[in-house]
Amino acid sequence: MSEIRIHRSLRQSNIVAFEHFFEDSENVYILLEMCQNQTLNELLRRRKRLTELETQCYIVQIVSALKYLHSHRVIHREYCYFFIDLYFSLKLGNLFLTDKMEIKIGDFGLATKLEFEGDKKRTICGTPNYIAPEILDGKQGHSYEVDIWSLGVILYTLLIGKPPFETSDVKTTYSRIKKNSYSFPDHIIISEDAKNLISKILTLDPKKRPSLDEIMNHNFFKSAKSIPKLLPPSTLACPPSASFLRQFSANNGGISSQSPEKQRLESTAPVSVHPTLTKTTSHTKLETKEKIEVKESTGGTSTQSIYVKKWVDYSSKYGLGYLLSNDATGVFFNDSTKLILDPRG
Q1: Residue 342 · residue 320 · CB < 8 Å
Q2: Is 196 found in the same domain as 85?
Q3: Residue 99 lies in a domain
Q4: Are residues 120 and 165 in the same domain?
Q5: How many CA atoms lie less than 13 Å away from 162 in the CB half-sphere?
Q6: Cβ-proximal residues to 299 (8 Å cutoff; 6+ apart), any chain
Q7: Phi and psi of 172, rounded to 5°?
Q8: Taking Cα atoms as reference points, which of 327, 331, 339 lies closest to residue 314?
Q9: Which residues are CB-neighbours of 298 under 8 A, at least 6 positions away?
Q10: Are 76 and 68 in contact (CB under 8 A)?
Q11: 194 lies in the same domain as 289
């Protein structure tokens, strides 16, 4: 009832719309806005990590939602909620993507509303990798700053590909959070502005964390000439094209966490996209044209534009089956092995 009471009172473009609820003798049913492009969970699983421009675009939308929530004295506390399965893989399960590629925050099961400005909550709740240290402490209470902390964890996770405090043991994760023990891996290149902002947000003292306005005024968001309001649907499957990135780059650099060559290679790899998209895009090119070398049966090579025409997604169990534009069919299995059949048999 608390979730329903809070969620139905919220109306903002980056919050999943509450439509209706009803109940029977066994269940309460909540009807919410449809978000066709799944969540950041699936996006990050396909893409591994995002470019800085994409991250900027998504963080701007999340901040917009948080400003609205905090203006209504609502703390989400778990807007970056995920589940941990047997392999401790992370699923950013309640940052939803619409058909227009808008971010929508959902799942208000752990949200709370402050009774007055300055009020503090003391309930220990949240999800291990994203929970703020003051929630774990439980002595001083917590307020809006816990959402700021989680925003920093989201920022790190999108750029690096995994949460900063992640371990295979919950107690060890909590210990790392309490000590603020994390680092930036050497093999992943991100800008100094990104590192600086993450470091400012992930501060143990809640009072020293930047406000949402201070976050938006940080150099990380000024490094781009501009930030797109929405990203193209092709980024569900592959990084933005170089030409797209150049439109928004102030200096043609510092906005990508992946090298151009790596982006090119990843954008031509078989990828998993939500199967319902095939209803509208089965014969539509899913990405900016990339020239790749295709080995011919004669042993030579030719430059040809190849893209996925149709696919079926069984990645929850086996892998992805697909049909390419040259009529070759293939399977990309979850263990990264592949099978492909030449169109001539």
Answers
A1: no
A2: yes
A3: yes
A4: yes
A5: 12
A6: none
A7: -65, -40
A8: 331
A9: none
A10: no
A11: no
Q: How many domains does the chain have?
A: 2
- Domain with 339 in it: 270-345
Alpha carbon distance 324, 18 (integer Å): 39
- What is 281-342 written as a DSSP string? HTTS--S---EEEEE-TTS-EEEEE--EEEEEEETTTTEEEEEETTS-EEEEETTS-EEEE-
Residue located via tokens 């929405």: 230
Cβ neighbours of 339 (radius 10 Å): 11
Do 81 and 144 share a structural domain? yes
- 288/296 Cα distance (integer angstroms): 23
Residue 250 lies in a domain: no
- For residues 286 and 208, state if they share a domain: no
**What whole-number distance in Å separates Cα of residue 269 and Cα of residue 287?**
11
Question: Beta-carbon neighbour count of residue 272 at 10 Å?
Answer: 21
Same domain, 200 and 342: no
**219 and 93 within one domain:** yes
The tens place of each residue's pLDDT in the chain, 345 residues long, gives 877 888 888 899 999 999 999 999 999 999 999 999 999 989 999 999 999 999 999 999 999 999 988 887 765 434 333 322 221 222 477 899 999 999 999 877 644 554 545 544 444 444 567 777 777 766 665 567 888 998 999 999 999 999 999 888 888 988 899 999 999 999 999 999 999 999 999 999 989 999 999 999 999 998 888 999 999 999 998 999 888 998 998 764 444 455 444 444 444 444 444 444 333 433 333 443 444 444 444 455 556 688 888 888 887 778 889 999 889 999 999 888 999 999 888
Say how many Å lie between the first and final Cα of the chain, rounded.
59
Q: Are residues 168 and 289 in the same domain?
A: no
Residues β-bridged to residue 249: 224
CA atoms of 97 and 301, how far apart (whole Å): 39
Phi, psi for 284 (deg, rounded to 5): -110, 140
